[in-house]
Design goal:
Elements lengths: L4 E8 L3 E10 L2 E11 L3 E2 L2 E2 L2 H19 L6 E5 L5 E10 L9 H12 L8 E13 L2 E4 L9 E12 H13 L4 E6 H9 L2 H6 L1 E6 L4 E7 L2 E8 L3 H12 L3 H11 L12 E4 L7 E4 H23 L12 E4 L8 H9 L3 E3 L9 H5 L4 H12 L14 H9 L2
Parallel strand pairs: 1-6, 6-11, 12-17, 17-18
Antiparallel strand pairs: 1-2, 2-3, 4-5, 7-10, 8-9, 8-10, 12-13, 13-14, 15-16
């Protein structure tokens, strides 16, 4: 009997690193180990301190090594940042033996052609080329052309590109922790695999991941991602706003946000006050309405920026599935109402699915990207593959696989 496949996922965030390992048997995923560590080595999704980032990753994966042994497989690593951009492109190939049916290699070749159809500047590279739909001999709307008879195969693909040096720095931080990198995955695309049902992906849903340094989004329609991106603001900016307004340490501002924060100041009673400790020492009182006014202003800015970017996609007008909010700041009370007021679409909080795990972890939006990375990796066993540019360390990953 074949051993379960082990999948490792690492979510390197602006405030913390999450690491997960899951066992895959067929379509079933079960969480085997997890770890978390604080991180202050990224700014708006970009590594600014290589050694600190590697140290945080090492701390996060320590429970995985303890539970599963020292030989972990290559990790699926979440990537974010305003340097990432997306576009929808087409590519196509001729079918070598029309009567015999389209092969997996021809599907991969069409996707490769789409990914290379637009010349990129020397400082950018393709992170993803994800198939949206196929056409055979001019007939579009085909979901899976494998084995179908045709003379020509075309693919519509969602392309995500990023700045090469910034991607390299993240990979190097992971490598210094002792892990190989299987693939970099744009975080909201990964999260969609764990948070959205097939119906939501088909009818049209906007997933918004409000992280510590960035807010990422992915718009799904017709069963696949069709638009994605990132804005350089997140929950960390809300904390900074509170710290500056109150003259408080950021840690104290974060506590106030988490324990007493709200996205709608008018819903709070005027007399409701809480205590806090300013930088000069002592204790002061502040109105929760005052805190909520600061939080609401920044969260509204973030949501409006995301909505403006998502609105550039032709599918934005048909979001029957509304919005799904995830990331740590999506836990703020009132955020769903605020999102609905801004977009005119229904909004709901996220809950992970597709992985057998502690229900509390699945319900925590801070872990959504990690679970999404696991689900994304599991799906890649049968998905058409875009081949990114070779990395100098990938030969070692291949050797390690052969040695298992």
């Amino acid at each position: 009997m074949a051993r379960p496949r082990l999948i490792v996922a690492v979510d390197v965030g602006t405030t913390k690193v999450l690491a997960l390992a899951a066992a895959q048997e067929g379509e079933h995923l079960s969480l085997a180990a997890s770890g978390v560590a604080p991180c202050a080595a990224l700014r708006r999704g970009v590594v600014v301190d290589m050694e600190a980032a590697a140290s945080a990753i090492s701390q996060a994966i320590a429970p995985l090594l303890s539970a599963l042994g020292p030989r972990l497989p290559g990790a699926w690593v979440g990537v974010t940042g305003a340097h990432l951009a997306s576009a929808n492109l087409q590519g196509g190939v001729g079918v070598a033996a029309p009567e015999a049916g389209i092969t997996r290699s021809e599907i991969d070749a069409a996707l490769q052609q789409a990914g290379g159809s637009v010349p990129l500047p020397s400082d950018r590279e393709v992170v993803h080329a994800i198939p949206r739909s196929f056409a055979i001999d001019g007939q579009d709307g085909v979901r899976n052309p494998l084995g179908m008879s045709a003379r020509a195969l075309e693919v519509s693909a969602h392309l995500v590109t990023g700045t090469t040096t910034l991607l390299d720095n993240l990979e190097q931080a992971v490598l210094r922790s002792g892990l190989m990198v299987e693939e970099l995955v744009f975080e909201p695309i990964a999260a969609g695999h764990a948070l959205l049902s097939a119906a939501e992906q088909d009818l049209g849903t906007l997933l918004v991941d409000i992280g510590g340094g960035t807010s990422d989004y992915a718009l799904f329609a017709d069963g696949a991602v069709c638009h994605s991106g990132s804005v350089p603001l997140g929950g960390g900016q809300v904390t900074r706003d509170l710290a500056m307004a109150l003259g408080a340490d950021p840690a104290e501002a974060e506590r106030l946000k988490v324990e007493h924060g709200h996205c709608l100041y008018q819903e709070l009673p005027e007399e409701d006050e809480v205590s806090y400790h300013p930088l000069g020492g002592g204790e002061e009182q502040v109105s929760r309405r005052y805190l909520a006014g600061i939080i609401e202003a920044r969260m509204e800015e973030i949501l409006r920026l995301v909505w403006a970017e998502a609105g550039k996609c032709e599918y934005a007008s048909r979001l029957a599935g509304g919005l799904v909010l995830t990331g740590g700041s999506s836990r703020l009370p009132g955020i769903r109402t605020l999102a609905e007021r801004i977009t005119g679409r229904p909004a709901r909080s996220s809950r992970g699915q597709g992985v057998e795990a502690d229900p509390e972890l699945l319900a925590d939006p801070a872990w959504a990207t990690g679970f999404g990375l696991l689900c994304y990796a599991a799906a890649q066993e049968t998905a058409p593959q875009w081949q990114p540019r070779p990395r100098p360390w990938q030969w070692l990953l291949r050797v390690l696989r052969l040695g298992r």
